[in-house]
Design goal:
Helix content is 48%, strand content 18%.
């Protein structure tokens, strides 16, 4: 079993200790999250493990032959090749093995010819044994099915078939990071280090990645600010605090509960120490200028300097955000009829019809490129060039946060001054706390806005927006540059927001805790899911499972063909040049074609039935959302029972569709 172990690893940058005697153990069964505040050293630790940074001290033990692959947060350099070719580089290790096999075959062939008739064939045994081991390794690794695997992973991460042969350089930075993620997943290393792998993924790709990781053969160490993703993928958490690592068994939510229990004691010790420090400081201040107390004062000054200060983790410094009150609006916020938007000849939104009422909390979800940001720009009034009708209600005041809001911040004001100039007077005393919650801590608040990174500007722009008295907030990916503690502050703030909220986010925890409606956008249009997030996630999970099933069937077919090809090659089998028209195979072809037609018809009927059941569930959800109904216990009991029955029926119908589709795939492949 491959293992990876760090013992007493330390690293300092200047006078700052990043890691101090940190120890870590990973095995092939490890599913470990690396937690800690921003700047605590998570990415640095990953770079040390992957060999990119050398520690000042400590040791790293890795099993002989074990391979490590690492996905950084950003700045992954891709070759100037097609997406497919970039992904194929994941198999460099196996390409070299295949070259070694061919080289051995040439050597064996030459030596066999040299020793022909000499009776010295025994000298070939070591070469034949090595050839056998390498060949077996290649066969069991899936190397000969790499094309199917490359397509499977790239499509799972959101690439269309037409994308796969395009140049990597044609894609945005976010899509290039998806290519990089595909490459590290395909490498099949013994240890997989992932630093924010979900940063650029939409909901569907996150579901796919979660399922892929659950089947991955090898140890995984992951950094992520997606709480739900961590809960679904890890079974332990290593927290970095003050340079050391502390291990917690269980998923991320379990870690938070355990940490809370540990922190209760830490808070008590912290408060006791603060009281003691305050008592000593008061004595020093009171008697500082009295000669008769000079010795006692000096003694207490020395005592104060020797105290080893207890530091509280950032997650314990709870910050409560208060929105300035917005003006009153009417009940209708937006009403859209046949809303359509195109860029040239390319349609983005097509005939959307929906209403948004006061108090709605709408998550706009869907694949990248489905038109989510376009819809938000139109709702915010930032893009008036569309067809159809969009009616805005009375008294509506919209605050809009765009993904490129950082570009609006220029000039030489400091971070604090930039925030102060537009903040309501009553919130000015809280600005330092608010800045701290959005990761501007210590001297960061005195940085000039002009030197901030894009992520820092984005956080500042979001905070500026939240301090203004709007009654409708339209937020496009507000959590992109926030860590978990900052996300929690924003989440609690938005929960207390009394207006209407429309937001794009791929963070399922964020959506689950905020949204009461979900607008799901895809190539076929927009679906509206009323009520709880769990039903929406369940539907997406089911759809993803059937796509996975189809892809796995194709991959298995490729593998079966490769095994057949290898067996035939070994036995000297050669296929016939044609088929005998009197053969059983020929006679069965017509029956197979008829069966395929029947299955295709069944698959269409099954999908129509699935859509009908989903529509019935939507109608029940609408009834359950009606105030007249949810105040009546008997009606709600019946509606809940009806929905449960329909969900069971839907799952059964999905099973029928899957069986039909799988048989159809097999017959189409054989024919």
């Amino acid at each position: 079993m491959p293992t990876l172990q760090l013992e007493s690893v330390s690293l300092a940058f200047g006078d700052r200790d990043i890691l101090s005697s940190a120890s870590l153990h990973l095995s092939e069964n490890s599913r470990t999250a690396l937690a800690g505040a921003n700047g605590s050293g998570k990415s640095t630790l990953m770079k040390i493990i992957s060999g990119l940074i050398k520690p000042d001290s400590g040791t790293i033990h890795i099993s002989r032959g074990a391979r490590i692959t690492y996905l950084p947060q950003s700045d992954y350099i891709l070759p100037d090749t097609s997406v497919y070719a970039a992904a194929d580089e994941a198999f460099t290790y196996y390409h070299a093995m295949q070259d070694a096999v061919r080289n051995l075959e040439n050597i064996i062939s030459r030596q066999a010819a040299d020793h022909s008739g000499s009776g010295n064939a025994g000298s070939l045994e070591p070469l034949l044994l090595e050839h056998h081991h390498l060949n077996e390794h290649l066969l069991t690794s899936g190397y000969f099915q790499r094309e199917a695997r490359i397509y499977h992973v790239l499509q799972g991460l959101g690439f269309s078939l037409s994308d796969i042969m395009r140049s990597c350089r044609e894609f945005s930075g976010g899509w290039q990071m998806r290519i990089a993620l595909a490459k590290v997943l395909l490498e099949q290393a013994d240890f997989l280090l992932l630093d924010e792998p979900t940063n650029y993924l939409d909901v569907e790709a996150r579901i796919w990645l979660k399922n892929y990781i659950s089947r991955y053969r090898g140890g995984i160490l992951v950094v992520s600010h997606d709480r739900d993703f961590l809960d679904d993928t890890v079974n332990s958490v290593e927290e970095i605090f003050q340079g050391s690592l502390t291990r917690y068994a269980g998923n991320y939510s379990s870690f938070e509960k355990q940490r809370e229990q540990r922190n209760e004691q830490l808070i008590k010790l912290y408060e006791q120490q603060q009281n003691e420090i305050q008592r000593i400081e008061q004595f020093i201040e009171r008697f500082r200028y009295k000669e008769s107390k000079a010795r006692q004062v000096q003694s207490r000054v020395s005592m104060l300097e020797k105290i080893e200060r207890i530091e509280l983790p950032e997650n314990l410094k709870k910050i409560h955000f208060s929105f300035p009150p917005g003006k009153h609006s009417g009940n209708l916020i937006f009403n859209a009829e046949s809303l359509t938007k195109s860029y040239g000849a390319e349609p983005v939104l097509s005939n959307l019809n929906f209403s948004i009422v006061k108090g709605d909390r709408i998550a706009v979800s869907g694949k990248n490129g489905a038109g989510k940001s376009t819809l938000l720009r139109i709702l915010a009034g930032a893009d008036p060039a569309f067809d159809g009708e969009l009616r805005e209600g009375a008294g509506v005041s919209v605050g809009y946060f765009a993904q490129d809001s950082d570009k609006s911040l220029t000039g030489d004001l400091t971070v604090y001054e930039e925030l102060e100039k537009e903040a309501p007077t009553e919130l000015i005393p809280k600005l330092r706390s608010y800045l701290g919650s959005f990761l501007f801590r210590g001297d960061d608040i005195y940085k000039s806005v002009s030197i901030l990174s894009g992520g820092e500007k984005s956080r500042l722009a979001l905070l500026k927006l939240l301090l203004k008295p709007y009654n409708v907030l339209v937020l496009d990916e507000p959590t992109n540059h926030l860590d978990l503690s900052a996300k929690d502050v924003l989440l609690e703030a938005l929960k207390s927001f009394t207006g209407t909220l429309i937001f794009v986010s791929h963070d399922s925890y964020f959506i689950r805790n905020l949204a009461n409606r979900i607008f799901y956008m895809s190539e076929s249009g927009m679906e509206i899911f009323e009520g709880e997030y769990e039903y929406f996630a369940w539907v997406l999970e089911k759809r993803n499972q059937y796509i996975e099933s189809s892809s796995q069937t194709n991959e298995q077919n490729h593998q079966n063909e490769e095994i057949k090809r290898t067996d035939r090659s070994k036995s000297g089998f050669r296929p016939a040049s044609g088929l005998d028209k009197n053969s059983t195979s020929y006679k069965n072809q017509n029956a197979v074609r008829n069966r395929i037609k029947s299955l295709q018809k069944q698959a269409v009927q099954s999908m129509e039935e699935i859509e009908e059941i989903e529509n019935r569930i939507k109608r029940v959800n609408l009834q359950m959302a009606d105030p007249e109904n949810y105040q009546n216990g008997e009606i709600m009991k019946k509606l809940t029972s009806d929905r449960t029955d329909m969900e069971s029926l839907l799952e059964k119908e999905f099973g029928i569709w899957e069986e039909t589709h799988q048989e159809l795939e097999e017959l189409e492949h054989e024919s």
